[in-house]
Amino acid sequence: MSGGIGPERLSLNTATVREQWDLAQCIEGCARHGIAGISPWRDKLHEMGVDKAARAIRDAGLRVSGLCRGGWFTESGAINQAVIDDNTRAVDEAATLGADCLVMVVGGLPRGSKDLPRAWDLVEEGLARTLDHARKAGVKVAIEPLHPMYAADRACVNTMAHALDLCDRLGDGIGCAVDVYHVWWDPALAAQIERAGRDRLMAFHICDWLVPTRDLLTDRGMMGDGVIDIPHLRGLVETQGFEGLNEVEIFSDRDWWRRDPDEVLATVVERARTVC
Amino acid sequence: MSGGIGPERLSLNTATVREQWDLAQCIEGCARHGIAGISPWRDKLHEMGVDKAARAIRDAGLRVSGLCRGGWFTESGAINQAVIDDNTRAVDEAATLGADCLVMVVGGLPRGSKDLPRAWDLVEEGLARTLDHARKAGVKVAIEPLHPMYAADRACVNTMAHALDLCDRLGDGIGCAVDVYHVWWDPALAAQIERAGRDRLMAFHICDWLVPTRDLLTDRGMMGDGVIDIPHLRGLVETQGFEGLNEVEIFSDRDWWRRDPDEVLATVVERARTVC
């Protein structure tokens, strides 16, 4: 598990250079730096066009480690048709891209609500309805537990244990996206990764937790600049047989979003070798 | 559980007006607003002098819902005598004040370390050694699980489940301080409060989670201004027989720390009646 990883085991989440590059530039950048995969956000995908993007990704020989993101089930306080339609489209886009999974950011509290159990129920209903279509389309659905600091406004599923409880009830075709930033602190993490097992470990995202963290959303660190023991966490998922790519997703408006994106990718590749 | 609470069931954590008032002013403020209790931070306590403060608090007829704080076991990477001595002094100060408990903020990762299990072990050792003295002094020790966003730099115990696992191993005289700000998001919370039971529920802290939260440390909200269902959480601890005060602890350098402290206390009293 030690010794770091080469770019042939990396994927670039487009959020990492979202301020600098469009999707076509991200695809070219991955090819230029030998990065094996990509994980597009849907805004960049729509901007380029899904079919054109799928072709360009295929032509560049890149694997699609995930599509970010479906979900966002809770905001209006009910599962309405617009939310289901949007998630259906996300499933279809993931199928077109041949993505390893569709990553789900499930949504926080409904607007004006303090009723967390109600939000949890909405998430389960939304996932169940999306999953019906995803199974037919052959797309795996990956719940991404977000850090508890996002419980109110982004995702009310904040631990692997909660995500796996949902998976237990929802059945086949659904699992977890493990992002070290969101779960590194959890004393139950090792046990829950083991509980998940190979079939439900659908994505592994890396970056780092900075001390201090100056913003709740956009102050993630480059691997090695923070306190997360990434090789240890990578070891936990690999012990279960996870063979997906190590997807680099860094939100950083004070640092990495302001740099030359080729410098960002070169740093990603170097840090993957030395500290991941 | 509904209908709100009167000031005779409130305690003022001095952090709520820490920029405006010293401890003597906090004591007078509580008396003026009919707030039944106080929970001093140790810096303000030392500034006033422990014996003088204990006398003034007694003369004002206030209950001491807690002393903030002991702990901070991990920073140097070992449990050294200085840390034990400081916690011993904190225990003695809590005894002098007749505090309901000594609140423990256990510390994050050791400086330069990414080894979370090592930090957990240090915390357990530090608590065990402090507890020996606390039992003799008749002081209850309350582990405060902090929000996971503080795992690196303030406290690596971030859930009630983890705190109670420690309590199970450490035995009598140790329990939890439940601060709604730190634990409101946790899907295991209700079960863990039930697991804790009356004897291990030693403190209940209230404030609110703002959306958006603009700073990880100093952007807590006044009760009612955020998304936490405080009456529900209060109901959970009261169902277990908790009879302590509702301690108001608000870190707010953009808002409440800039206001007239009598306005802050009047707002606390009004919000306790209307939204807690």
List the helices and strands and how they pair.
Two copies of one chain form a homodimer.
Chain A: E1 10-13, H1 23-33, E2 37-39, H2 42-48, H3 50-59, E3 63-64, E4 67-71, H4 81-97, E5 102-105, H5 116-137, E6 141-143, H6 160-170, E7 174-179, H7 180-183, H8 189-200, E8 201-206, H9 230-239, E9 246-248, H10 261-275
Parallel strand pairs in A: 1-2, 1-9, 2-3, 4-5, 5-6, 6-7, 7-8, 8-9
Helix pairs in contact in A: 4-5, 6-8, 8-9
Specify the helix fraction band of chain A. Answer: 40-55%
Low-confidence stretches of chain A: none
Helix count of chain A, per DSSP? 10
Largest interface: A-B, 32 and 32 residues
CATH homologous superfamily of chain A? Divalent-metal-dependent TIM barrel enzymes
C-alpha-based Rg of chain A, rounded: 17 Å
**Which secondary-structure class do the elements of chain A indicate?**
alpha/beta
Classified by CATH, the class of chain A is: Alpha Beta
Oligomer: homodimer
Mean pLDDT of chain A: 97
Q: How many beta-strand segments of chain A?
A: 9
Question: How is the main sheet of chain A built?
Answer: 9 strands, parallel
CATH domain topology of chain A: TIM Barrel
Distance between the termini of chain A: 9 Å
| Total domain units of chain A | 1
Q: Secondary-structure element order of chain A, as H and E?
A: EHEHHEEHEHEHEHHEHEH
Could you say which overall geometry of chain A the principal axes of the C-alpha atoms support?
Answer: globular
